[in-house]
Every structure is written in structure tokens, then in C-alpha cells.
């Protein structure tokens, strides 16, 4: 079973703390190209060196910024691979799935399902308030965005899934020897990692319900499905369709997307709706397709090895 694959006599919890530090260091190393590029730009243009994240992300045009930011996740993913292989003496497959090989059909189904929902939900928003959106499409920048996004955004989302739903979930299972503690801890940590996003400053802390709720949803489908394939597909679809479809001045990234949201951000039903209605519907769809059973044991039960 998925969590049990990380519970070995040599796999003590302190190793996961060390591994987490190594992954963070790898991510910081991956941020060096962005830092060097920003410093060079400031020196060349004789401008003040930006200090805040918002200012740094506005130094270059959006495609270049996206490329430089995504590089850090390539390094972080390499850090995950090295930590899993050499520190924990596991295979990458063991923190991916309990199956004998990665189920790409699961990843694809989850990706397509959430991509279709994302496009349809945006269509509803657009038809309801078209004045809130402007046409932002420029062919060449958009095609470059498609290439960068298709290559690097899945690496970014996969890195996050391997860290939270794979590596740390097994790590907390080593500590607690049950299923509910890894589920809750990874959801809370995943949500708290978004607390410095500009969306939180604009909408308030109520949006943390969405971030933590999303982490909880991804954790549930990981435990019920005994692998992170569905989470990988969902997360990639969420970020990629978001980057390609609509951007705004107050989100983490501004991209050369098709539309630009000009509305004033506010936290309302759009924050609560996915958590209390949409995610349960997705859970129902996944459970019927993959014949999930024994929910209580898989989500809260004790782990025996």
C-alpha cells in the first residue's frame, strides 16, 4: 500500500526533516538564475534592485519571468529524486504509487476532467460578467507561453505533489503510524505555503479555506487511490489552464493568457464553492470510476506493517 511503502526500519522521521531541508536548498539553488538575471538587469539599466517578490516578478516580460521562476522547480525535483534514492533508499516509483508502474491513464483522466471543468467554469463567469474581462491574446507571446507552460508547469505541479502527497505524506505516516495525521498535516502545510501569495493580501485569509481545502482534496484522492497519479493530473490541469486562459494584475503570475481579469478581487462563493460542492463531486466521479471502498479505514485507519 502507498503509505506503507515508506515505512521501513531505517526510515526514521528525522530523515524526512533532513530531506526537506535538502529539497529547499535545491530550490534556492534553482532561484539563482532569476536572481542573477534581476541583478544584471538592474545594473545594465541603472535601476534600483527590487526587493519584494512583486517587484522581482515585474522586472521581465511575463514569459521570461515564468521561465526563470519555473527553473527552481526543476532543481527541487532533482532534489526530491536524490533524497528519495540516497537518503531513504527508495525508488521514485515508491513515492508515486503503490502500483507496479505509474498509471498514466489516471493522470490523463484527472487532467482532462479538471481542464474541461476549468474551461467551462470560466465560460460561465465570462458570460455572466463579460465586462470584467478583456481580450489579452497576442499570437506569438501566447505560443511561447504554451511551449514554456507545457514543458515547465507540469514539473512545478509535480514537484509540489511529490513533496506533499508523496514524500511528506509518507514521512508523517512514519511518525504517526496512522492515515489521518499525514492527511491533515500535509493539507495544512500545503495551504500555509500559499499564505504570502498576493491573492491572500487582496482577498483576505478566507481564501486559505480554498488552499487548505484543495490540499485536503488532493490528499484524500491520494489515500483512496493509493498513489498520486490523480493529484498529478488535477494539479497540472489547474495551473496550466489557469496560465493559458486568464491572468490578472493581482495574481502571483501575470501571463500572456487569452483573457485578462479586470475585476476587483473579492472572496465569496468562488472560494467556498469548490471545497464544499465541486471537490465532493469529483470525489464521487473518481470513486465510481476506480471503485473506491472502505473510506474510513483508508483515510483515518491505523497503519500496520
From TrEMBL:
The chain crosses the membrane at residues 13-43, 63-87, 107-127, 139-159, 180-197, 203-223, 230-247, 267-286. Coiled coil: none annotated. Keywords: Hydrolase, Membrane, Metalloprotease, Protease, Transmembrane, Transmembrane helix. Residues 143-240 form the CAAX prenyl protease 2/Lysostaphin resistance protein A-like domain. InterPro entries: Rce1/LyrA-like_dom. GO terms for molecular function: endopeptidase activity; metallopeptidase activity. It holds the Pfam family Rce1-like. GO terms for biological process: CAAX-box protein maturation. This is CPBP family intramembrane metalloprotease.
Amino acid at each position: 500500500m502507498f503509505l506503507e511503502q515508506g515505512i521501513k526500519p531505517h526510515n526514521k522521521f528525522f530523515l524526512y526533516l533532513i530531506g526537506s531541508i535538502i529539497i529547499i536548498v535545491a530550490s534556492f539553488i534553482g532561484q539563482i538564475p532569476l536572481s542573477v538575471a534581476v541583478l544584471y538587469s538592474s545594473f545594465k539599466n541603472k535601476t534600483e534592485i527590487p526587493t519584494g517578490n512583486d517587484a522581482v516578478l515585474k522586472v521581465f516580460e511575463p514569459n521570461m519571468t515564468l521561465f526563470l521562476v519555473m527553473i527552481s522547480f526543476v532543481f527541487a525535483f532533482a532534489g526530491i529524486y536524490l533524497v528519495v534514492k540516497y537518503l531513504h533508499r527508495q525508488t521514485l516509483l515508491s513515492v508515486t504509487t503503490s502500483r507496479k508502474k505509474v498509471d498514466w491513464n489516471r493522470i490523463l483522466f484527472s487532467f482532462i476532467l479538471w481542464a474541461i471543468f476549468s474551461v467551462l467554469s470560466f465560460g460561465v463567469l465570462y458570460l455572466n460578467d463579460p465586462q470584467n474581462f478583456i481580450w489579452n491574446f497576442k499570437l506569438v507571446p501566447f505560443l511561447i507561453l504554451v511551449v514554456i507552460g507545457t514543458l515547465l508547469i507540469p514539473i512545478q505541479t509535480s514537484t509540489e505533489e511529490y513533496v506533499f502527497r508523496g514524500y511528506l505524506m509518507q514521512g508523517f505516516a512514519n511518525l504517526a503510524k496512522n492515515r489521518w495525521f499525514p492527511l491533515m498535516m500535509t493539507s495544512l502545510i500545503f495551504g500555509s505555503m500559499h499564505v504570502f501569495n498576493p491573492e491572500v493580501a487582496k482577498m483576505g485569509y478566507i481564501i486559505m479555506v480554498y488552499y487548505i481545502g484543495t490540499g485536503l482534496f488532493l490528499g484524500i484522492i491520494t489515500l483512496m487511490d493509493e498513489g498520486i497519479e490523480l493529484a498529478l493530473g488535477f494539479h497540472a490541469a489547474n495551473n496550466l489552464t489557469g496560465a493559458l486562459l486568464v491572468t490578472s494584475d493581482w495574481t502571483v503570475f501575470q501571463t500572456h493568457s487569452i483573457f485578462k481579469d479586470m475585476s476587483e478581487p473579492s472572496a465569496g462563493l468562488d472560494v467556498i464553492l469548490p471545497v464544499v460542492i465541486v471537490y465532493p463531486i469529483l470525489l464521487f466521479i473518481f470513486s465510481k470510476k476506480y471503485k473506491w471502498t472502505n473510506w474510513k479505514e483508508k483515510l483515518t485507519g491505523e497503519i500496520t506493517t
